[in-house]
Design brief:
The protein is mainly beta. It has 4 helices and 37 strands. The strands form 9 sheets. It has a 6-stranded mixed β-sheet with strand order 1-4-31-32-33-34. A 5-stranded mixed β-sheet has the order 18-19-20-21-25, with no helix packed on it. The chain has a 4-stranded antiparallel β-sheet with strand order 5-37-36-35, with no helix packed on it. The protein is globular. 56% of the residues are buried.
Length: 493
């Protein structure tokens, strides 16, 4: 399996130097900083997908509820590959990826009890956002909500992948780092749901809230990997505007992109309902080229129709012999917005916008090429999908070059649940398979042909227990892994 840093040359995926250096690793949410959920698995053809089955030799035990996506790290030496899973009990489990046997475990401190928070539905609250691995440093970075004598706090940890040891200078107490600054970082109001990102010798940590319980601001924290005492941040000017999508911070290798939710008590736009470009040092937008918000942003605020249900998706759209750099944003209002990545457009400056869903977009998306188009699959009730329940729950949106580019429903398929899909191909474009779990729904693992939506697999018969809303899965060279409360399920093909 190779991870694609999402780029296309004549509609074929480019395998980057990062992927070549770590050919079998899944180091972050949906495989990498572009959040495309796009994996190359040479042996996983359409026919092989039909014979998917449980790996009977794999048995994994986890302590607590699992909301974060597991990670997979293949060392460059003879050490076995590790599956890394983090739970709401603030326990980090490193498992032998072949057997599920625990290699090491690290307890990060007492998680926060539900009664210590103004609202929320995770009890206890520990690690929720997907961590990130820096393969060069053999280090895992994550944020944990920890109960301290001074009250709940968010601590950013760095752990050695060799043995789980906490590295010198870590953890970083976010509340303490910004004590006395405006806006205040209120740990009981800020929840950490989005995935972390490593880039530019920094780890970036996004923050949203608990069901809009104030006070909070959409916030990105940056911690230096070489000197964890150097901590910076960007926050929305208005209250609210949480960065809560599971994909968290996305990157095209140059800039950082985030999507924010609804803000409060605003007359003039102040960073809510937006796609925002941030510099590596977390300098915010300085002109309309660095942000986009729909013209009806104020109405979206009033309706709690967050633009940030899915993290922004940087895409290189095939356009004849060229590539057009764009960003796709999918909102809770059911619209898809395609933006020029070089100039995001300011207020109402999208390239094109289309109503694609009746129920909005959440979780994550799988992005992949089909012929001369790009397809994006995500869970929703799509516009143009049959009313028949047997073909609803997951849709693929096609994006085709043009002036403006064209957005249309490519196919629809049945899935009951709210899992974030991924896609596998055998070589970057052949045998595309969209995989998703019916999290808090049917509990099935689903597989569909990426070009037509035809069902390839749906099972197992008893379903998978313990899947939380927005959960996703990962693909490796010979297995698929699905994380759940207390365990990880492994499938062979």
């Amino acid at each position: 399996m190779r991870r694609i840093l999402f780029s296309f040359l004549t509609a074929a995926a480019v395998i980057t130097g990062v992927a070549d250096a770590e050919p079998f690793s899944v180091l972050g949410y949906h495989g990498g900083p572009e959040r495309s959920g796009n994996f190359i698995v040479p042996d996983l053809s359409w026919n092989r997908a039909r014979s998917l089955h449980f790996d009977s030799a794999f048995h994994a035990e986890l302590s607590g509820q699992l909301y974060a996506q597991p990670l997979y790290w293949q060392p460059t030496d003879a050490r076995p590959a590790l599956l890394v899973a983090v739970t709401e009990n603030n326990v980090v489990h490193a498992l032998d990826a072949r057997t599920g046997r625990e290699v090491w475990q690290q307890q990060l401190g007492a998680p926060v009890k539900r009664e210590a928070l103004p609202c929320g539905d995770i009890a206890p609250l520990g690690v929720t956002g997907t961590p990130v691995i820096d393969a060069a440093r053999e280090t895992l970075y994550l944020d944990a909500a920890v109960s301290l004598p001074t009250g709940p706090s968010h601590l950013v940890f760095a752990l050695s992948l060799k043995n789980g040891a906490i590295l010198p200078g870590w953890p970083v107490d976010i509340k303490g780092a910004f004590a006395g600054q405006d806006p205040p970082f209120v740990a009981t109001g800020q929840n950490q749901r989005g995935a972390l990102l490593v880039a530019n010798d920094m780890v970036y940590v996004p923050f949203g809230s608990f069901f809009d319980c104030r006070p909070y601001h959409g916030t990105i924290i940056g911690v230096s990997l070489t000197d964890p005492h150097k901590v910076t941040r960007w926050s929305t000017r208005a209250a609210g505007g949480g960065v809560w999508a599971p994909g968290g911070v996305a990157s095209d290798g140059i800039s950082l992109f985030i999507a924010t939710g609804n803000t409060f008590d605003t007359t003039d736009w102040a960073d809510g309902e937006a796609v925002i470009r941030l510099s590596p040092d977390l300098q915010g937008p300085t002109d309309p080229g660095d942000y986009f918000t729909p013209a009806d942003w104020h109405d979206l605020d009033a309706q709690d129709s967050d633009l940030g249900g899915i993290a922004p998706l940087p895409i290189d759209l095939p356009d004849g012999d060229n590539l057009r750099p764009v960003v796709l944003a999918l909102g809770k209002n059911g619209k898809a917005y395609l933006l020029d990545r070089g100039h995001l457009g300011g207020i109402g400056g999208e390239l094109t916008a289309t109503q694609v869903s009746t129920h909005g977009a959440y979780a994550g998306a799988a992005v992949y090429p089909v012929a001369d188009s790009i397809y994006v699959a995500f869970p929703t009730e799509g516009i143009g999908c049959p009313q028949d329940e047997s073909q609803r729950g997951l849709m693929a949106l096609s994006i085709h070059a043009g002036d403006p580019p064209k957005l249309a429903t490519a196919w629809c398929a049945q899935m009951k649940g709210f899992g974030a899909p991924i896609v596998t191909t055998t070589d970057g474009h052949s045998n595309p398979i969209v995989w998703a779990v019916g999290a808090q729904g049917d509990g099935f693992l689903h597989a569909f042909k990426g070009d037509t939506g035809e069902v390839l697999y749906s099972g197992p018969l008893q379903g998978l227990a313990g899947l939380h809303r927005l959960q996703t899965l990962i693909a490796t060279q010979d297995r698929l892994y699905v994380g759940a409360d207390g365990t990880i399920y492994a499938f062979e093909f």
